[in-house]
Amino acid sequence: MRTRPFGSTGVEVSEIGLGTWQLGGTEWGDVSDEQALNTLAAAAEAGITFFDTADIYGMGRSETLIGRFLKGRSDRERFFVATKLGRHPRPGWPANFTREAVRQHTEDSLRRLQVEALDLTQTHCIPREQMASGEVFEYLRELKREGKIKAFGASVETMDEALLCLEQDELSSLQVIFNVFRQKPIDVLFDRARARQVALIVRLPLASGLLGGHLTRDAVFAEKDHRHFNRDGQYFNVGETFAGLPFERGVELADAIKALVPGGMTMAQFALRWCLDYDAVTTVIPGAKRPEQARQNAAASELPRLPAGLHSQLRRFYDDEVAPLIRGPY
User: Fold this and answer.
1) Whole-angstrom distance, CA of residue 118 vs CA of residue 144
2) Which of 148, 269, 296, 297 is the most buried (most CB within 10 A)?
3) 204-238 burial, b for 16+ CB within 10 Å, e for fewer?
4) Where are the alpha helices (DSSP H) in the chain?
5) Distance, CA of 315 to CA of 177 (rounded, Å)
């Protein structure tokens, strides 16, 4: 597993991390405690040192499981755990953005993760007006001065929000959506983040499964899975992955991508390798519900860079076939 510097923090993290939303609750289907802990162990054995979680994932279950997994490990210090705050239903918006709520949510995460200081906490796709006011970032600076958190960042939905947060002093990271179907960060964000020494955490690198290579037009998701949709007209993951692209069209586009995957790698590994070929990217956080998924994802770090001609072909594919279909803020 290769590592990359996490912005200006002085810390190195695995370039493939593990997103743990799916370990927290039922939004991706049920995952038992044993299965979750085994997946975390497999990720660690494969060289993954970066875990991304949030206080809202399973209402704290994801953080609790990570805390249980790391407790007592002799190599605890090699792991970097990034969590998030701002979307918890107690007290909810807009009260979540007061000094008192930010502090309480931080204390709750510290307790669940069983640590004295958070490696990183991120604002969790909070309203733009809260980003613009800057107050929540000042509260995080206070917690950093007190030693409750070591660094803070922001998880955002749009490039406009990313650039807005990038203006904040002491911002260590930005978490953004980036994949073959969402290439806008290349032109808008990468150079600016690199210049500010801000780490970039890539979420949804597999486009919620479309770039995993296994979904078909007749795919059926469990009712509790957040990707569950009604075939009478509802869209796949509206506003998050394709911002309005119909599921069937997404599968067609994914099939076109699958035909370009070089030999010796799975489609998921190809999608992860594509992200890693951009040096502005710090770490990519695909989710995994099973140990084998975590191991296969981690293996993408050791694959060779994709040919320049293939990158050019995928950029033309995005410009011609995907970008015109994306609706809504991006």
Assistant:
1) 9
2) 297
3) bbbbbbbbbbebeeeeebeeebbbebeeeeebbbb
4) 21-24, 33-45, 61-70, 99-113, 128-133, 135-145, 159-166, 184-188, 190-195, 247-258, 267-276, 291-298, 308-317
5) 16
